[in-house]
Amino acid sequence: MCAIFNRSLLLAIFVVTTRTLAADIWTGEYSFDETYIGEANVTRGKLRVSNFDESNTFIRFVLTPRIKLGVLRLGVEYEQFSFGLSQRAPLPNTLQSVAAVVGIDTQISDSVLLRVEAMPGVYSEAFRSGSTDFNMPFVIGGTYIYNPNLQIVLGISVDIDRKYPVLPGGGIRWKFQPQWVLNAVLPTPRLEYELNKNVTVYIGADLKETNFRVGDRFGSDHGLPQLNHAVLTYSEVRVGAGVDWKLTNWLSIDAEGGYQPYRSFDFYRADIRFKEDGPGAPYGMISFHGAF
Amino acid sequence: MAKFATVVPAPRSLPMRNVHPIYVSVVALLMLVERPASADPLSELSSFSVFDKIDLAQLAKTDVKTAHGPPMANPRYLSVQSCYVVSGTPGQHLEALRNWNPSAHRELKVFMHADVPGSPTEAAFAKIKQAPDNAAMRAFVAATNKMSADLQLSREEAARWKPGDGTLAGAIGDFWINVLTGRARAFASGGTSALAPYNHTGNAIRAGEELNGLLREQAKIRKQFAGFLDSTGIGRGSGSLKPELYWEMLNVEDMGVTSLGAFYGRATGGGAEAADVFYYASGGYYADLALYQMWPVEVNGKASTLVWRGDMISSASLATLRGVEKLGSESAMMKDVAKSITLFRKDTAR
Question: Which residues contact B93 (CB under 8 A, 6 or more apart)?
């Protein structure tokens, strides 16, 4: 039933898209981010998982064709967290997600834009058996355009696998000086300074949180059978500074460095949670992104 | 979160106090020519605009209705359409459009506005030396001093730059007076076809070609205004209609921009049509055009005018926007157009 529904939905989207789009179909955006986070520790009571590093890869490709209703968002994204854990550590070594991006940006009035975007896909522990259940988190957000220099964003994020399935979010984007922008919109609030037309420097944060399903035997293999097929909420906070250099109209490079003060692995349904212990870890990130 | 280009120039100011005799005679002649009758204004409106269903009584109660124009393939282009009802005849509305000066409204970001005679002289632009001292104007002065690539000039114009005292009252003012005079004369004699391209850095961009491109991508609008536009200098050589010329200094994305504009208007049967074009800009956008179609209507027993306005713009910065950013820019443009119409209506209702 679910598969039929999804296929019908995709077919419908394809038909609508090919009928209504002309030359505008090949517009889109992409991002390839790679982050390395140095060694840090997490604890749960007396249990401590020490000195493991992290590599985070994020790839996103979204077509943004224009239709009468607004701008469609159709694409795919992939994310991987790889941790340098020992085999005995009761945490997954690799978390992987692959999801479609299906959404639309539309104009409600001359002051309000609305985004509805779903990321249906698989959020797994390295695609192990039992960890590839389908999930479809989605966001609904509105932007109120007070004027070209000030916009207010409000929205909700919905994920039925999350401890609190519905979470509010938002922020403001305020260009308060010709070269200064307070882009305080969650999950990546930033203060930006435009050095010139092509180079922007910034300080800011990145609040990441994704829910993954671990494999059928993950718990048994780690001496915690209640964690078999469990949902894991992985969260981390990064604070840092970076420079975004626009090389061409379609390619920008973003280099960022900073500190990760917080991280947690939360099997909330089993009430087992590992959280940051100690001073955190430094990180470095490089991103290639752009629009075409 | 998206960024929003704010390239929409402030709406028009057309204080045309000296109506040229030749213009009067052309208008009088045109008024005698019967325009093909359309079924009714609303049918005609829906035939070329994005407004399919308009309830006239409802529209008369509201301030202004705006909508984004049809998507265009060229990423530099953006358009917004609006419609509204005002009391009075189309002729009165056309006259009000001519006489309205938006520079009184600070929020429209027009620092200076002045008429330019049909035979442009340097004296018409002398006031540029007294432009207000603000951040946008300082950015304009700095850009001129270093002959920034952001300035839209021809190679010949750029070659005439001679660094002097570096002030608007001095060498910079002289330079721009020279540029504006040359361009206004070229337009007056040969329409946009006579204008030099923007080519002092990078590829050559011609304002006339941008205007033609904007109209080409909006075929219904081009068809609706074909007869009128053929008699103007918009996207072609000088036409039979005499334009009213003006220049402005405005703020576009925190940069002072000096622009040259021309207004054309004519009565058509009981209605009227007008075109207001920025055929030169020192930066920010390549060209900008606002078209007006006005029909006589009766609302609550009172003579009124149904107005359709189409704003279209070509700008390099729009080409860098995608997806929601472009949508945001359209919203910003819609808000700006709505704001200008609201202010215009308040001013002219007095």
Answer: B86, B272, B294, B305, B307
Task: Indicate the pairing of strand A252-267 with strand A281-291.
Answer: antiparallel
Mean pLDDT over residues A275-286, rounded?
A: 94
> Quick check: B4 and A151 CB within 8 A?
yes
Put simply, whether A248 touches B (Cβ < 8 Å) is no
Which tokens go with A111?
A: 């002051």
Domain-located, residue B6: no
pLDDT digits (tens, 9 = 90+) for A196-214: 989 999 999 999 999 999 9
Within 10 A of B166 (CB to CB), how many other CB atoms are there? 12
**Is A147 close to B335, i.e. CB distance below 8 A?**
yes
Q: Structural domain boundaries of chain A?
A: 2-291
Asked if ipTM goes beyond 0.85, one says no
Q: Hey, what amino acid is at B327? A: L
- Give A196's contacts in chain B (Cβ within 8 Å): none
User: Which of A24, A143, A249 has its CB closest to that of B71?
Assistant: A24
Is A107 in CB contact (< 8 Å) with chain B?
A: yes
**Of A214, A212, A287, residue with least CA distance to A255:** A287
d(CA B2, CA B321): 9
Report how far Cα A53 is from the mean position of its chain's Cα atoms.
20
- The residue range of the domain holding B164 is 21-349
How far does the CA of residue B190 sit from the closest CA of chain A (Å)?
34
The predicted-structure confidence for B214-232, as pLDDT tens digits, reads as follows: 999 999 999 999 999 999 9
Contact B36, B274 (CB under 8 A): no
Instruction: Specify the 3-state DSSP secondary structure of B82.
Output: strand
pTM, to two decimals: 0.79
Q: Which of residues 193-212 of A touch B (CB under 8 A)?
A: 197
In a domain, B176, yes or no: yes
Residues B4/B330, Cβ–Cβ less than 8 Å: no
pLDDT at residue B165, rounded to an integer: 83
Contacting residues of B for A149, CB less than 8 Å apart: 6
Six-digit token pair at A87? 């085999």
Domain assignment present for B5: no
Nearest residue to A219 via CA among A96, A131, A160, A134: A131
Q: What is the per-residue pLDDT across A71-117, written as a single tens digit (0 to 9) for each?
A: 999 999 999 999 999 888 999 999 999 999 999 999 888 889 999 99
Residue labelled with tokens 């900073």: A258
Share of chain B above pLDDT 90, in %: 66
**Measured over all CA atoms, what is the biggest interatomic distance in chain B, rounded to whole angstroms?**
63
Tally of domains within chain B: 1
Q: How far apart, in whole angstroms, are the C-alpha atoms of residue A101 and residue A138?
A: 9
Residue B11 is assigned to a structural domain of this protein: no
Taking CB atoms and an 8 Å limit, are B1 and A185 in contact across chains?
Answer: yes
Give CA B184 to chain center in angstroms: 15
